[in-house]
Queue: 3 jobs
Job 1
Amino acid sequence: MSYDLLRGLRVVELTMFSTDTVGGHLADMGADVVKIEEPPYGTPTRHAGSLHYRWNRGKRSAMLSLKEEGGTARLLELVRDADVFIYGLRAGAAQRFGVDYDSVRAANSSIVYCAVSGFGQEGLYRDLASHGWAFDALAGLAVPDIDDEGLPRTPDSHTLVGIEAAGMFGAMAILAALRKAERTGESQRLDVAGVDSALTFRATDLDMRANDMGNTDMSGYVRYQYYPTKDDEFVMFMALEDKFWKNFCEAAQREDLFEAGLKIDSPKAPDADKNKLRHQLADLFRTRTRAEWIELFIAHNIAGAPAYRGLDVLEDPHIAARGLTYDQEQPDGRTMHLFGTPIKVNDEKFQPGCPPGPGEHTDEILQGAKK
């Protein structure tokens, strides 16, 4: 089951694709999330691979078209009994469909209204159509690769940031706004944008660059670097602090490297000295397997971690012990292997409900039934 931290919280969401993530986090914590879907096929997220299984699990679904006569009135009836309304379409559509903040607040004076979108409710790009990668591209997080013909293409190793970050920031903001709404009895309006969220994940680096205090680029460091191991895998070596470096040199029986390493990771260190130590460390790391190096790191208090590619991380014994994944049989008979939530609550096991079928709960929702 989902956790019961938010049991009794009623959420109505009008979202699709990346904006499903906010309500997804709340559903994972036990909120009753009612998903409004456009008939006859429902949200396009259903046709986006595994996204639907992750972002819409544990929700209830009602088919309701705001384009039909009386559709908006029925939605506002649902909002009257809700604590939270999540709006996930482009800014201008809210006014057209009569679900803008003022209209929703008129139906429920204490509602927490969270508008989550790609570019936000204000600004030059508020009406620009986009998908998740656009937020990261604008934020400078998805710098294009260049192919063999010199043409830019989407980078192979990039993981979407703005989508996932907006979900987390939106859920966090809603919970904070609920506290204020309880205190004041007044509605709260929230504006969460995917591009803002992606930029916030770059904020440390941007702050440093904007204030001429350097940057967070560690690619030239020797004591904070990837190294290959005997079994053709990688470790992330992170002995940037002198205490970790000392522990490493002693544990690896290479005290001869200690003094050179103290001087090497600074902007003024000669490139030749950096390259020499880098190759010495590369040769050293090739003498043990990844698992053996991690054993040594743990035993001798050395900062680092195994480094993985693709699905290999799922085989790591630590990740397996953390219980981050679960298997779930779907109504169509398919068994899905899915990631859960990183949040642990007491000793409870996280096993959320399946995502709803299109309009599966329409009758009970429109009749005012609750979980």
Note: Residues 162-184 form the longest helix (23 residues).
Job 2
Amino acid sequence: MATFQVAVADPESGRTYQFEVDGQDANRFIGREIGDEVDGGAVGLDGYTVEITGGSDDAGRPMRGDVDGSDLKEVLLEGGAGFNPERDGERKRVTVRGKEVSESAAQLNVSIAERGDESVESLLGEGDDEDGGDDE
């Protein structure tokens, strides 16, 4: 059974909310790809729609939207998720995950695509927190 962390970004407020998702809610993400939209009820946002924007596996290898499947692949990168070049023209062969969500995912990044009737803070129960949430 799949279990992973989901980081939900709210583009309007600029805040990010962390959830651990397992069971039936996690199965809503399995088989989907980066860019696909999923019902927000999986992360406690009933009436909302969230878009998968990325993720990583338990070893920290990022998912890339330009790599098909869910398996590990070695790709030659010039930049983007998985490699940050230090000089112009630098390339590197890096192991990354494909764009399909599988049980090997440890973290998923999602963004709110369509809003529901209620506010995000009221649905997540963080509306009465003075300092704005879980600052570390």
Note: DSSP finds two helices and seven strands in the chain.
Job 3
Amino acid sequence: MFHVKQDEYFKILYKLALKSYKNNEIPVSAIIIYKDKIIGKGYNDRQNKHNILGHAEIKAILNASKKIKDWRLNECILISTLKPCDLCNEVIKASRIKEVYYILNQPNTNYSNKKYKLIDNSSFYIEKYKEIFNNFFSKLR
């Protein structure tokens, strides 16, 4: 698990999600951790970049792969603010990420995966993240 720097990770995830939120993107962010160090970060920018691959998890995976100069991330952990969608799930599988943790569940995912774990925590940053996520969808209604 990633208990060592948990609050630091949640703070970074919140700040990344806030970037998406401020750009009218679905506020999702992700980080990749290797040996307690963040080696990849990403946040949604699909609408603004007009790129179907602008998902937080995919961007974090690409950044991490570039950093370690290998597409295999089998010793890495991914933490996302939202349970990865089906597209991201396939990229996560292909990159061989060891474990995936997420803050909010996404009901419309059509897969089950034993290495995915819902974060059961109520830290300050998780609560702030839930707030911007809910605000984003409230504005759409």
Note: Residues 20 and 27 are 5 Å apart (CA to CA).
